[in-house]
Amino acid sequence: MHNITLVFSGPVNVDYFVFNAANENPGTNPPVGNTRSAFSNIQAEDYDSSYGPNLQTFSLPGGGSAIGYIENGYYTTYKNIDFGDGAVSVTARVATQVATTIQVRSGSASGTLLGTINVGSTGSFDTYREVSANISNTTGVKDIVLVFSGPVNVDWFVFSKTGTSPDPTGKKLVALTFDDGPNTTTTPQILDILEREGVVATFFLIGSNINDSVKAVMQRQVSLGCELANHSWSHSDMSTMSYSQIQQEIANTNNRIYQMVGVTPKFFRPPYISTSPTMYEAIDLPFIGGLTCNDWDNSTSAAQRASIVLNNVRDGDIVLLHDFAGNYNTVQALSTIIQGLRDRGFEFVTVSQLFELKGINPNVEYKLWNGAY
Length: 373
Fold this sequence. Notes:
Elements: E1 36-37, E2 42-43, E3 49-51, E4 56-59, E5 65-68, E6 75-82, E7 87-95, E8 100-106, E9 112-119, E10 129-138, E11 141-148, E12 153-160, E13 172-181, H1 186-197, E14 202-205, H2 215-223, E15 227-230, H3 243-261, H4 277-282, E16 287-288, E17 291-292, H5 302-312, E18 317-322, H6 328-343, E19 346-348, H7 351-358, E20 368-369
Parallel strand pairs: 1-6, 13-14, 13-18, 13-19, 14-15, 16-20, 17-18
Antiparallel strand pairs: 2-12, 3-6, 4-5, 6-11, 7-10, 7-12, 8-9, 8-11
Helix pairs in contact: 1-6, 5-6
């Protein structure tokens, strides 16, 4: 017989606690209640308990929900997560304007630290990207707690049996991409810099911009080793379109690109990064997002654009920029971005090369890729 004292180091609500008999293994005995697979997406809003006075669940424009209004010290608990014979990494879909961290703990907010997800700025609280981290090998059924160090929106998280690892070539890779071209002003200025620096990129083209006046520009893109991809025909919010309208947007753009330079796009970037289940069903191409720097907003200076990219980029990232007519600040920022990435040890590849070198098949249904990881 013992008197037991619980000593607290900070704010917490306590529901219950229980001890296990000496012959029990708490890591493998499922708790009471249904389990959830660690290897399927766990929606962040589906927590069993939480701490945080301002924590809220809100709807996402493309469907589904996320949690946000998070502050330092907030946490969410997800009970009965089944890791089976083991998981060694975690991926979360997040959005934030500031660098922050998410600790993944077992049992409680002060329980065993399994790993820490380092989250860089995604550009805004509306721009989501997937971030990953290795965790300690975790088996059996566990209660998982996400502990937050600062503001972040979380859509979902999922665990994996394989760890995050560097590129098998030993190089850090990054893919520069440009949206909303082609044109005869900004696009050639971007190509001048890429050619001078010996850098390749992927251009996501708007079909309605493609005509005989830009054919020479597109031919130059291909001749420099750049990749051409699909960014819709009209640059409208395709999440509101019907199945047939979506297919027409993609087919018209693919056909126009092929007519001009004999290239068929391998990737699609949704306008406004707005998606829907119908889009995923109608479009037979991998969906590409990326690390943004608000370069569609003229008030974002060239220095700010470069700083956002260089302060947040990581191995395997796809960097999302724009070459629409008149986007002079991105032209000004590009040389700084390229030199800064080189100084950090990155090599430049197209989106196709990125996935190939990382050994990742991008043909995954209902997934938006922000990088090859």
